[in-house]
Specification:
mainly alpha, two-stranded parallel sheet, 5 helices
Length: 94
Protein backbone atom coordinates (compact mmCIF):
# COMPACT_ATOMS: atom_id res chain seq x y z
CA UNK A 1 0.00 0.00 0.00
CA UNK A 2 1.43 3.31 -1.02
CA UNK A 3 -1.09 5.55 0.70
CA UNK A 4 -4.11 5.44 2.98
CA UNK A 5 -6.62 5.37 0.11
CA UNK A 6 -6.67 1.60 -0.21
CA UNK A 7 -10.46 1.39 -0.42
CA UNK A 8 -10.48 3.61 -3.50
CA UNK A 9 -7.77 1.54 -5.15
CA UNK A 10 -9.60 -1.72 -4.44
CA UNK A 11 -12.78 -0.35 -5.99
CA UNK A 12 -10.94 0.85 -9.11
CA UNK A 13 -8.96 -2.35 -9.77
CA UNK A 14 -11.60 -4.92 -8.78
CA UNK A 15 -13.10 -5.20 -12.29
CA UNK A 16 -9.69 -6.22 -13.65
CA UNK A 17 -8.64 -8.73 -10.98
CA UNK A 18 -8.16 -12.29 -12.21
CA UNK A 19 -6.46 -13.77 -9.16
CA UNK A 20 -6.02 -11.58 -6.07
CA UNK A 21 -5.25 -8.17 -4.64
CA UNK A 22 -2.43 -8.49 -2.13
CA UNK A 23 -2.37 -5.83 0.59
CA UNK A 24 0.60 -5.12 2.81
CA UNK A 25 3.03 -2.50 4.04
CA UNK A 26 6.22 -1.68 2.15
CA UNK A 27 9.15 -3.86 3.22
CA UNK A 28 12.12 -2.00 4.69
CA UNK A 29 11.05 1.20 2.98
CA UNK A 30 13.54 3.58 4.60
CA UNK A 31 16.51 1.29 4.01
CA UNK A 32 15.53 0.66 0.38
CA UNK A 33 15.08 4.35 -0.34
CA UNK A 34 18.50 5.15 1.11
CA UNK A 35 20.14 2.24 -0.72
CA UNK A 36 18.73 3.53 -4.01
CA UNK A 37 20.03 7.07 -3.48
CA UNK A 38 16.82 8.67 -2.19
CA UNK A 39 17.77 9.37 1.41
CA UNK A 40 17.23 13.12 1.28
CA UNK A 41 15.32 14.79 4.09
CA UNK A 42 12.11 15.40 2.12
CA UNK A 43 11.90 11.81 0.89
CA UNK A 44 12.57 10.44 4.36
CA UNK A 45 9.86 12.67 5.85
CA UNK A 46 7.34 11.56 3.22
CA UNK A 47 8.25 7.91 3.73
CA UNK A 48 7.73 8.30 7.48
CA UNK A 49 4.34 9.95 6.89
CA UNK A 50 3.36 7.02 4.70
CA UNK A 51 4.44 4.48 7.30
CA UNK A 52 2.57 6.42 9.99
CA UNK A 53 -0.61 6.47 7.86
CA UNK A 54 -0.57 2.66 7.78
CA UNK A 55 -0.96 2.40 11.55
CA UNK A 56 -2.26 -0.67 13.33
CA UNK A 57 -5.68 0.94 13.77
CA UNK A 58 -5.83 1.75 10.04
CA UNK A 59 -4.96 -1.87 9.17
CA UNK A 60 -7.51 -3.25 11.63
CA UNK A 61 -10.24 -1.06 10.13
CA UNK A 62 -9.19 -1.98 6.59
CA UNK A 63 -9.31 -5.67 7.45
CA UNK A 64 -12.74 -5.30 9.06
CA UNK A 65 -14.07 -3.75 5.84
CA UNK A 66 -12.55 -6.31 3.46
CA UNK A 67 -12.10 -9.58 5.36
CA UNK A 68 -15.00 -11.22 3.53
CA UNK A 69 -13.74 -10.25 0.08
CA UNK A 70 -12.33 -13.47 -1.44
CA UNK A 71 -10.19 -11.48 -3.88
CA UNK A 72 -8.15 -9.81 -1.16
CA UNK A 73 -5.10 -11.51 0.30
CA UNK A 74 -3.17 -10.16 3.27
CA UNK A 75 0.60 -9.94 3.30
CA UNK A 76 2.62 -10.86 6.37
CA UNK A 77 2.96 -7.24 7.49
CA UNK A 78 -0.83 -7.03 7.89
CA UNK A 79 -1.29 -10.54 9.27
CA UNK A 80 1.05 -9.70 12.15
CA UNK A 81 -1.13 -6.74 13.14
CA UNK A 82 -4.56 -8.34 12.74
CA UNK A 83 -3.62 -11.72 14.18
CA UNK A 84 -4.11 -13.98 11.16
CA UNK A 85 -2.11 -17.19 11.25
CA UNK A 86 0.95 -17.06 9.00
CA UNK A 87 2.29 -20.09 7.12
CA UNK A 88 5.50 -21.54 8.50
CA UNK A 89 6.87 -22.38 5.06
CA UNK A 90 7.27 -20.13 2.00
CA UNK A 91 4.79 -20.70 -0.81
CA UNK A 92 1.97 -21.97 1.36
CA UNK A 93 0.14 -18.68 1.61
CA UNK A 94 -3.10 -18.78 -0.36
Amino acid sequence: MLDDKTDILIKKVMPYVTDAIWLGKGNQMIARLKMNGHGDEETMERAQLLMDSLSDSYLLDLYARHKRNPWIKWKDSVKKVIGIERPIESGLDI
